[in-house]
Amino acid sequence: MISGFFKNLLQIFAFACLLTAGYLNIIVIPENHTGLLVDATRGLQQPFLKPGYHWNWTGFIPFKWSLYSIDMNPPVVDFHFIQPLHYGRYMEEPKDFSIDLKLNIKYGLSEQSLLFFWNYLHKNISDYPKYLNDHIKLIIEFFILENYKTENDVAGLNPLLRQYFLPGGKFEMDWKTAFNEEDITLDHFDLARLQTPEATIYFDKLKNIGQVFQTLREASAERILADADAYKKRLNNQIELEKTEQFIEIMKKYPDIIKYYQIEKINPQASSVILLNDRVNENEIVKNSIKPSPAPMEKTGKKEPPQEAPGHIHPEESGKIEAIKK
Hints:
By secondary structure, the chain is α+β, with helices and mostly antiparallel strands. It has helices at residues 2-25, 111-120, 128-147, 157-164, 170-178, 199-206, 209-253, 257-266, 282-289, and strands at residues 26-29, 33-39, 43-44, 52-55, 65-71, 77-84, 98-108, 185-195. The longest helix is centred in the C-terminal third of the chain and has 45 residues, at 209-253.
């Protein structure tokens, strides 16, 4: 009976191993996708995996493989583009003086596209939509830069852009040139929205552009002065902090220095300072600091001769010529 129990246990264990092996080693690639299999030591594996089921032995080593499943025929992407006119960014409402357009774009990838993104994006292939978005923006910006050079061109921007995005027009040609190396095909696109500023309103606002620039200059000057004042305060605080840290270090090394500091704060005009040892008896300090008074003269009935000030000359001695001693 015991042998039968172990036999059943082994069968359960073997079945669990098969399930684990199937889960870890069977790869499923959905329809219209391509699988990029990356070994932890050997890197990207080729050929890429086609849609369907694939067996890949992991050897029960965790994190040995990484799998990227990329949609080769992604859904329609909404691309939104906004660019202000030359002086539009200085207006009170910059959005009212900006080129605003929206595109619906359908594109397709190839294995060459995946290989390019893998190398160009340094293995961060999931970031390729941002790369695509940035390059579409560059295509449109370059076209606007070529055709909008002076403010006189503002009136013709709307019809010019509508012509640019016609099927089979200039936009498709620029797409092929821009994404030739990436091999990204433009399957379909349409211009969902295009708004450009009214030229007459824009020119009317330009009449007061000098006053706007003056206001901006004044605001910039105030901001620069405020930043300079803040920087000066930070610098002074840093200097005070460093002085404090240095003073603390000196106090640790020379504890008696605090007495000099206290006297200097109490009487900044003091020219000399005498420090007394804390261990000296206070009575001795008081005793030594009081001068002894002169002994009183005995009462003899005679008046004390008045003390003369140093340098006093008696009247009878005036006119006397002292002998010159040699």
